[in-house]
Amino acid sequence: MLILLLLLLGGSGLAKGLEWREAAGHRLAKLTLPEQGRTGFTQLATPALGIQFTNRVSRAVLARRSNLTNGSGVALGDANGDGLCDIYFCRLEGDNELYLNQGGWRFQLAPNANGAAANGHLTRGAAFADVDGDGSLDLLLTTFRKGTLCLLNDGEGQFTDATAKAGLESRASGTTLALGDVDRDGDLDLYVANFGELALLRDGGSFAVRRVGGKPVVSGQHAGRLKIIDGKLIEFGEPDAFYLNDGHGVFERVPWSAGRFVQANGQPFAEPLDFGLSVQMRDINGDGFVDIYVCNDFQTPDRFWLNDGTGKFREAGPEAVRSVAYASMGADFADIDRDGHTDFFVVEMLSRDASTRLMKSSPNNPLPPVPGGLAKRLQVARNTLFWNRGDGTFAEVGRYAGVDASDWSWQPVFLDVDLDGYDDLLVTNGHLHDVNDRDSQAKFARIPKAKRSQVGLLMFPPNTTANVAYRNLGNFKFAETGRAWGFDSSQTSHGIATGDLDNDGDLDLVINCLNEPPLVYRNNTIAPRVAVQLRGLPPNTHGIGARVTVAIGKIRQTQEIVAGGRYLSGDQPLRMFAMGTGTANRSIEVAWPSGRRSFINDPQPNHIYEIIEPSGKVPKPALAKREPEPFFEDASRLLNHSHVENNYDDTTLQPQLPRRLDRSGPGVAWLDYDNDGDDDLLVGAGAGSALAVFQNQGDGRFRRIAASALSKSYGDVVSACGWVDGSGRRAWLAAVTNYESPRSRARLMTFRKSGGLARSAKSLVDIMPGPIAVADVDADGDLDVFIGGRAVTGHYPQASVSVLFRNTTRSLDPAGGTLSQALGLVNGAVFSDLDGDGFPELIVATEWGPVRVFKNQQGKFSEATEALGLSGLTGLWQGVATGDFDGDGRTDIVATNWGLNSSLRPNLINPPRLYYNFTDSSEPTSLILAAWDDRLKQYLPTRDLVSLFRGYPGLRGVFQSHREYAEAGVLKIMDHHPAAARSVTAAVLQSTVFLNRKEGFEPRALPPEAQLSPAFGVSVGDLDGDGIDDLFLAQNFAAFPTDADRLDAGRGLWLRGLGQGNFTPVKGGEAGLKMYGDQRACALSDYDADGRLDLVVTQSGGRTRLFRNNKAKPGLRVRLVGGRLNPDAIGSAARLHFGQAPEATSGTWREWQLGSGYGSQDGLAKVLATPTPPSVIEVRWPSGKTTRTTLPAGLTEITLAPNGKILEQKTK
Fold first, then answer.
1. Nearest in space to 193 (alpha carbons), one of 171, 175, 167, 170
2. Distances in whole angstroms, Cα of residue 262 to Cα of each of 5, 259, 319, 322
3. Are the C-beta atoms of 783 and 865 separated by less than 8 Å?
4. Residue partners of 1042: CB distance under 8 A and separation at least 6
5. How far apart are CA 1082 and CA 1095, in angstroms?
6. Is residue 233 a contact partner of residue 226, using CB atoms and an 8 Å limit?
7. In angstroms, rounded to a whole number, what is the distance separating the alpha carbons of residues 294 and 305?
8. Buried residues in 390-400 as b, exposed as e (16+ CB within 10 A)
9. From the centroid of its chain, how far is CA 347?
10. Is the CB of residue 987 less than 8 Å from the CB of residue 872?
11. β-strand 875-876 against 880-883: which pairing, if any?
């Protein structure tokens, strides 16, 4: 150990200070790096460093004031101006301490902290910042009950208390503080997050509840922090404090009533009583102005304040951030994927260990979530990672990235540990007592209230969890590397700060721990780097708020210089960047808060640069680039339609349902039902609401048909499809499910033109219907109908039967056979000729099963799923469609799935598993959703013990503690149910294309953006007219039991086809497609006959969205004419040929189908892309005949007969 310390302190010690060289607009100094190193950190023994500090708090004090367990922080900075980074520690009991850096990893305790000991204060947070503009780092501290302290630096490292003069005296109990120039007047303004001195309901505050006028009223000293909501006493925190700086270190507090902070709708914002834990001030949305993000604990939501450019703030709307962490602790910001936009991460306290999660429960009173709707932001009990879409909105992707759980976490730190150009992630963890432990909560509840204040937290077990590190893999995923990088201490770690303690250009770490010595980490990385610090114009002398960008070739690393903002802590105002080892062009650019800019070309690796803010006139800001017009225009006003859900809740029958199934619709279908040449639209309905039919007026407008045939539906209309009846008339089919009323029968509704709109109904026996698919399966000239069966009410995941109806021209008769039995939970269905023999196969997407394929052998079906290599790929498959995605002439499959951004993790060996016990049809089926636990080597339930009692009443009294239950495993739990256990799995969760190979199908996951939320509807078409098929995915799901979760990181996704089966996402701004609700069905149609594919998307409980395509290269509209009972030649396929042999090329095949995606139907006037003028159209007809027709120049639309003759044509 002695040798190790000598090596640490002697071998790697650096000389005091740096040797600077002056240059135009900056100065630089060479960094001295060790000859050997490794990625990661070495924890240094603090006594050997000269540090003898411990932040101690006594058991007696904790019993009276449990909030002190939240710890204290640390600040790093050059306090005495000698060129070395010093360390300042806050302490809860006793004086704070300042350690002056002597070089060579030696520190000297400053007597009385050079005037910054804060005698007599219980100090929480600290940050160095030059608040008076004299060039030296002053010190700001937060305290219990005594507000914020301001200690001014005399330039030599001696501090004087100037709190009263600075205008910061108060009785608040603060936590974290942050500074930034919000109004661009050149000085640093201040935001202080306040929490509250006492945990009133746990420690015993001064309050009483009495009844006034028959209503309960809270009175007493702390009555202002307590409210009675729905009969429950709810505790709140203290209002935060915001101060404006006059440029000389004198602050003026801005009242919440002054109008500087307003709601997203512009209305005044009432003073918030939040549990503020941390705050950061920085430019989050990239407009050059300082924004504010506040992390609030418990039910008080995070505050996200966007600067309007004048120093006033508007709250970010609910569409900007859809979910936030419930017990939000700390946040950090970085451009994680190097796309030029700032992302951010917020930590909570979800355990990494599955069994431990089953033993936890928040002791505070969460407000009940508001179900559905876009106007509410949900609080979720997990870490949240927000990916910046670049348009002012963020997608929450923490579970996709693998960072949703890091235990009881306080502060995340983005830091490029391995210097590969991508910021990695460090998280501090631990709590003195585990107040979330259910078993201890039960014991505590049995203690008389009079004695609780004496016991306090002492009866709760310690919450000892290791700090954690994650390596950024560069693909928006992270891999845990805490142990490998030496960052896995189990000390209770609170405030963390970064700084270069040895002047080698990388950032070292200091962590203030509770009742244990601090952690000091030396960064061992020796990869090439450049360090940047700033010298700004007074009064912002350290360039706080400046954005520094280091470019290496095409990789741009951007970081902002901030003051404070770490949980209770503040960094040294210095940033580190990777420099790489290649020969790529390099540069450093600084965007100063004043609007000025600095630029350094070809900076030298392994140097530190101090960049000086240029003086003189501030340049005028460059005119913002005009955004190009998007492809799609929102034309939803033409429909003015919204889907309405009723109050039915299937979780009352099956409380353990992993999701609500009564929110599955509505379906949608395009069809020229009135035979006037343009597509009309039918939109499904919820039970108790009426279907909607919109007649296309032929001029780009729609008229909603009012007809008695469209009276209120008694069940959900979950799917819709076109069909042709025995008289040759086009009609819509709509599946009306009886899922919500199982004693009645489901129906297949038919809507056709007959004067007005006529309706007929066919009862469906033993089926709870889902998707509809229509095709001439037996080549007899008429159209047969398949209806997929979904879950039986009260018995999920058991499926009802599916059914194939054969068309006799007089009626639809059940065919029996392979397709008329239970095929699994069928969510999507499509008929498509996969093998080119003229007979369409049936492809179905099943939930807790595979994508199943049924081979059509001249009208008889047999399953080919296993032979095609699909049987083992079980998933939560939703929608399904077909197309030729790799241009090889064979029909491929695309299927939507649950994605990778949920609590479920795909695993082919130990996949997510749903166990169930079926007793008989009169008793609901009991369920346990389980996940594999690597530590215990068994499946564990994903819900706590209490939530299982309704499905498994035999569990009452079986387990003596939550801990015993958490480690029992599912199989032991299910022993206490009288019925035998069964299970189903979902091994694959990615939305996937299956490429048709001769030997079977090759699965290929869609791009990451397609995996960020569940997808339902899927449409195939060339949306931009470039000749390659694209995809559109309808995304999101929020209908969970108790509405406690949302999977809504999607907004509807256009995936542009690249050929060879590859796709790339189109950004929402370019696409013009932005939907935040629960999208379900989607369908394509060129409803305005301009040669571009338009889009309709339904939303469960939301507005139906219609998008008009304005920008695609117009293609050739093609109609096919078939026989009397198949007038649109369903089952045909066509493609265009371009040029003449031998240089001729071909487009992709497009099939004429009825029913695909997710309960939807595309229009039958197909648009075939014409990247160059086509010469020939080739058609494969249902009869088996193939025709090739030469095309005249200038065509915009053609209608073809089965002999290939052009019946009608339109030209430009």
1. 175
2. 55, 6, 16, 19
3. no
4. 369, 651
5. 7
6. yes
7. 8
8. beebbbbbbbb
9. 14
10. yes
11. unpaired
Q: Which residues contact 749 (CB under 8 A, 6 or more apart)?
A: 717, 732, 733, 734, 735, 736, 759, 760, 761
User: Which residue reads 């600075």 in tokens?
Assistant: 166
Instruction: State the Cα–Cα distance between residues 825 and 845, nearest whole angstrom.
Output: 8
Summarised one tens digit per residue, pLDDT across range 46-105 is 999 999 999 998 887 877 787 888 999 999 999 999 999 999 999 999 999 999 999 999
Within 13 Å of residue 542, how many CA atoms lie on the same side as its CB? 27
Residues of the chain with pLDDT under 70: 1-16, 200, 202-206, 362-375, 449-450, 452-457, 1042-1043
- Rounded to two decimals, what is the model's pTM? 0.94
Cα separation, 334 vs 431, in Å, equals 26
For every residue of 704-747, which 3-state class applies, written as one string?
A: ECCCHHHCECCCCEEEEEEEECCCCCEEEEEEECCCCCCCCCEE
Helix/strand/coil (H/E/C) assignment for every residue in 478-490: EEECCCCCCCCCC
Question: Quick one: which of 400, 378, 195, 178 has its CA closest to 291?
Answer: 178
Other CB atoms closer than 10 Å to residue 656's CB: what's the count? 24
Answer positive or negative: Cα dihedral of 352, 353, 356, 357.
positive
What stretches of 18-173 adopt beta strand conformation (E)?
20-23, 26-30, 41-44, 74-77, 86-89, 97-103, 106-109, 123-129, 138-143, 148-153, 159-161
**3 state SS of 953:** helix
Q: What's the number of CA atoms in the CB half-sphere (13 Å) around residue 226? A: 24
Is residue 118 within 8 A of residue 148, CB to CB? The reply is no
Which strands form 529-535's sheet, in the order they lie side by side?
20-23, 26-30, 607-612, 529-535, 575-578
Residue pair 133/539 in contact (Cβ under 8 Å)? The answer is yes
From residue 405, alpha-carbon distances to 184, 346, 400, 401, 1083 in Å are 38, 11, 12, 11, 38
What does the alpha-carbon distance between residue 748 and residue 771 come to, in Å, rounded to a whole number? Answer: 11
- Residue for token digits 């914020």? 148
For 1120, phi and psi rounded to 5 degrees?
A: -115, 145
H runs (alpha helix) in 515-623: none
* Residue 965 near residue 851 (C-beta atoms within 8 A): no
Element spanning 440, H or E: helix 438-445
DSSP SS3 for 270: coil
| Whole-angstrom distance, CA of residue 353 vs CA of residue 468 | 13
Helix (H) or strand (E) holding 847: strand 841-849
Element (H, E) at 807: strand 803-807
Residue with tokens 């494969």: 1180
At 426-457, the pLDDT tens digits run 999 999 888 888 888 888 778 776 676 666 66
pLDDT of residue 1170: 95
d(CA 694, CA 166): 66
**Residues 1032 and 1019: beta-carbon distance below 8 Å:** yes
State the pLDDT at residue 200: 64
β-sheet bridge partners, residue 681: 670, 694
| Tokens linked to 898 | 């649950």
Q: What integer pLDDT is reported at residue 1 of this predicted model?
A: 34
Residue 200 per-residue DSSP state: I
According to DSSP, the residues that pair with 1005 across neighbouring strands are 992
User: Which residue in the block uniquely carries the two structure tokens 């290791």?
Assistant: 466
Q: How far apart are CA 288 and CA 547, in angstroms?
A: 9
Q: In this structure, what token pair is assigned to residue 7? A: 């090596």
**Around 496, how many Cα atoms within 13 Å sit in the side-chain half-sphere?**
31
Sheet of strand 812-814, all strands in order from the earlier edge strand to the far edge:
769-775, 784-789, 803-807, 812-814
Q: What is the spatial distance between Cα 680 and Cα 673, in angstroms, rounded to a whole number? A: 7
Cα(1172)–Cα(1115) distance, integer angstroms: 10
Res 478: pLDDT: 97
Do the Cβ atoms of 1021 and 1030 come closer than 8 Å? yes
